[in-house]
Amino acid sequence: MEITIELSRLLNELETLASFSDAPAPAVTRVVFSAQDLAARAYLHKLFCEAQLKLRTDAVGNTFARWAGADPNVPAVGTGSHTDAVPHAGRYDGTVGVLGGLEAIRALQRSGFRPRRSIELLAFTSEEPTRFGIGCLGSRLLSGTLSPESARQLKDSDGKSLEEVLRQAGLDGSLEDVRLANQFYHGFVELHIEQGPLLERKGIPIGIVTAIAAPATFRVRIEGSGGHAGAVLMPDRRDAFLAAAEIALAVESAAKDTRSADSVATTGVCSVFPGAVNSIPSRAVVEIDVRDTDLARRDGMLSAIRAACEAIGAKRQVRVEVDLINADAPAQASPLITEALSASCQALGIEFMPMVSRAYHDSLFLSRIAPTGMIFIPCRNGVSHRPDEYASPEDIKRGVQVLASALAQLAQ
Ligand SMILES: [Zn+2]
C-alpha cells in the first residue's frame, strides 16, 4: 500500500483555517464559539463532508467525522486534536492534528485501503482554557473527567454560562450524552507539534510520546500582619511575603528532592498586599504549578508542599490557607499505540525518539477511556502560542505519513 500525502493541499487548508482569526495574520486568535470559531467549524465540516466522512457533533460541540470500516461492530480507531487558539497564537497548535488527521484519512482512501475498523477524526471543543478557564473542556466531558453538573457551573468572563453559549452556537443537546463508553475507541492517536525544542535540537523528525505530564495547581493565601516598615521592629513582625518566599523555596526543594528529571514545580504568581515600599506585607497569595509523569511522585510533591506550608506558617505565626485548584492525573501512553507508531516509523524509514509530553493535551483525557498515544513533530525554536509558531512542510508531511500508517495498522 502506498500512502501519498497531498502536502500543498494540506498547507492551503492550514492557511485557510488560520484566516478565521480575530487577530491580523500571522497571529491567530480563535476563542471557542466566537464568530471566527464558528466559521472555522463550518469550513472544517465542509472539508469533512467532501472526504465522504459521516459527521456527528455532540452537545458540547466536539465534532466526529467517521470513515466507516467494513465491520461496524468493532470499536473504531480515533485521531484528532483541537482548532481553538489562544489570543495571538500561531497556526499549527492543534490544527495540524485535525487537518493532518483529515489528510491521513484521505491518503488512506486514495491508496485503496479498506479499514476493518471505522476511523474517526475528532475536533475537540475548547482545548484552550481561554474562555471558560478550564482546558480540554470537550475531551474532559467526553471521558467523564468533568461531570455535566460541573460543566454547567462554568461561565465566561462576560458571565455567560456554558449552556447559554452552546445554545447560541446552535447546540442544544444534553451534556449528559457527551460521555463516551470506556473502550469506545480501540485506540486513539493525536498528531501535534512538540511545543518544545527537543526534536529540533536533536534533528529527529518524530517524537513518540510515552507519557503526558499533568499539572496540579495550588493557590496559597498567607495572612500575617502589616505595619509601618520603620516602626515595627523585626522581632515583632509577621511578614506574609517572607512566608511566601520560604514557601517558594520549599516548592523548588519538593521537585529537586524527587531526584527525577520529570518532576517540576514552579511558583509563578506572588502578589503582595498592600504592595508599598514602606509597608510590611500583611497578605500574600502565591500560585504553584506542580507536574510529573508519575502520579505517586507528583502526589508526593503535593504532600511535601502542603507540609512545608504548614510548618512555615507555624514558625512565622502567619495563617496559611492552601487550596488545591486542580490535580489531573498524568497518563502513560498505551503500548498498543507506541508500538504501532514505532513500527510505522521503521516501515517509512523515519527516525524517531520516545519522549514525554510536558504540556497536556486532549489525549491526556482520551487515555482515560481508550489506549492512547501521540506523535510529536518539531516546531521552530520550540515556540508555540505565538504568531511565529512554525512547523516545516516536510515535518508536517512526515507526521501525517506516520499517522496514516499507524491508523491503517490499528484499523486492520
Ligand atoms: Zn494544542
Largest sheet: 9 strands, mixed
Along the chain, the helix and strand elements come as HEHEEEEHEHHHEHEEEHEEEHEEHEHEH
Q: What would you report as the Rg, rounded to the nearest angstrom?
A: 23 Å
Distance between the termini: 13 Å
Helix content: 25-40%
Number of separate strands? 17
Percentage of β-strand residues:
25-35%
Each distinct ligand:
zinc ion
Oligomer: single chain
Low-confidence regions: none
Mean pLDDT: 96
Label the overall shape. Answer: elongated
Q: Number of helical segments? A: 12
Q: What structural class should be given to the helix and strand makeup? A: alpha+beta
Describe the protein's architecture and organization.
This protein has 412 residues and is of the alpha+beta class. Helix content is 36%, strand content 25%. The strands form four sheets. Strands 2, 3, 4, 6, 7, 8, 15, 16 and 17 form a nine-stranded mixed beta sheet that branches. Helix 8 (240-256) runs antiparallel to helix 9. The chain is elongated.
Quickly describe the structure.
With 412 residues, the protein is an alpha+beta fold.
Give a quick set of tags describing it.
412 residues; 9-stranded mixed beta sheet; 4-stranded antiparallel beta sheet; 17 strands; elongated; binds zinc ion
